[in-house]
């Protein structure tokens, strides 16, 4: 059994160095919802030096709301927005002597692409335009996974260790009570079951969650105790 452990980083939340010690894939903010060129360069170097695979984490240009507000952009605007962010991080990664492994949309953009095939196709087009070998992350059964596969991209199906789910498998909106799970014991009680699902390739920990680094360390220990090989998607 194997599983990837990813985290959203480069968002200036103060936990990136500790997170890199236990994750296998890093979703690096591309300067719009969070971060900037200097932060991107530092985060790429940090991931490289820890042997962590690098991915782009593009979001809406909405820093005020941390990319978590639905901006309702048309598909061509989404394609352009995502393309520019991936390309920017890819160039920074190349300067550091590494390549991108994957793309994971951020916040509202990710959630829209779960259900909206037009938005999902726009993200897949942007990803493929930068590098057709990139892996696109999405919820199991989502429009984003279907769009990736239709575009000829590899899709990685993602579960969230610290988020609550609706009965249909989508995430509970952050505006609802209990959407983010803050109790480490509750997270750890379910993370192995999530990893054992046949439709899950990677587990996410949000880097802006308080205590995320310690939680990620405990999650990795729990997965390894359950005999999982915790390693990057491209390994």
Describe it for me?
- With 235 residues, this protein is an alpha/beta fold.
- It has one domain: TIM Barrel.
- It is built from 8 helices and 8 strands, in the order βαβαβαβααβαβαβαβ.
- It has helices at 16-20, 37-49, 75-95, 107-115, 117-130, 143-150, 184-196, 212-225, and strands spanning 2-9, 25-29, 53-57, 100-103, 135-138, 154-160, 202-205, 229-230.
- A 7-stranded parallel beta barrel has the order 1-2-3-4-5-6-7, surrounded by 6 helices.
- Helix 4 (107-115) crosses helix 5 (117-130), helix 5 (117-130) packs across helix 6 and helix 7 (184-196) packs across helix 8.
- It is globular.
- It starts with a strand and ends in a 5-residue tail after the last strand.
- The relative contact order is 0.18.
Summarize it.
By secondary structure, this protein is α/β, with parallel strands linked by helices. The protein is built from eight helices and eight strands; from the N terminus they run E-H-E-H-E-H-E-H-H-E-H-E-H-E-H-E.
Helices, strands, pairings?
Blueprint: E1 2-9, H1 16-20, E2 25-29, H2 37-49, E3 53-57, H3 75-95, E4 100-103, H4 107-115, H5 117-130, E5 135-138, H6 143-150, E6 154-160, H7 184-196, E7 202-205, H8 212-225, E8 229-230
Parallel strand pairs: 1-2, 1-7, 1-8, 2-3, 3-4, 4-5, 5-6, 6-7
Helix pairs in contact: 3-5, 4-5, 5-6, 7-8
């Amino acid at each position: 059994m194997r599983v990837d452990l990813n985290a959203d980083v480069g968002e200036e939340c103060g936990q990136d160095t500790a997170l890199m010690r236990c994750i296998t894939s890093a979703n690096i903010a591309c300067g719009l919802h969070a971060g900037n060129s200097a932060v991107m360069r530092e985060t790429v170097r940090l991931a490289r030096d820890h042997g962590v695979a690098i991915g782009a984490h593009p979001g809406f240009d909405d820093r005020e709301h941390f990319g978590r507000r639905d901006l309702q952009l048309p598909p061509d605007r989404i394609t352009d927005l995502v393309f520019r962010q991936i390309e920017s991080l890819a160039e920074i990664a190349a300067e550091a002597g590494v390549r991108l492994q994957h793309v994971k949309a951020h916040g509202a953009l990710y959630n829209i692409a779960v259900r909206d095939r037009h938005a999902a196709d726009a993200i897949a087009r942007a990803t493929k335009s930068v590098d057709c070998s990139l892996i696109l992350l999405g919820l199991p059964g989502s429009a984003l996974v279907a769009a990736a596969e239709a575009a000829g991209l590899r899709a990685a199906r993602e579960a969230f260790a610290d988020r609550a789910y609706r009965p249909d498998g989508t995430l509970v909106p952050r505006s609802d009570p209990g959407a983010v799970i803050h109790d480490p014991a509750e997270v750890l009680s379910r993370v192995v079951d999530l990893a054992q699902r046949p439709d899950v390739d990677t587990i996410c920990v949000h880097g802006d969650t308080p205590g995320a680094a310690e939680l990620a360390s405990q999650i990795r220990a729990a997965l390894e105790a359950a005999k999982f090989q915790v390693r990057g998607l491209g390994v």
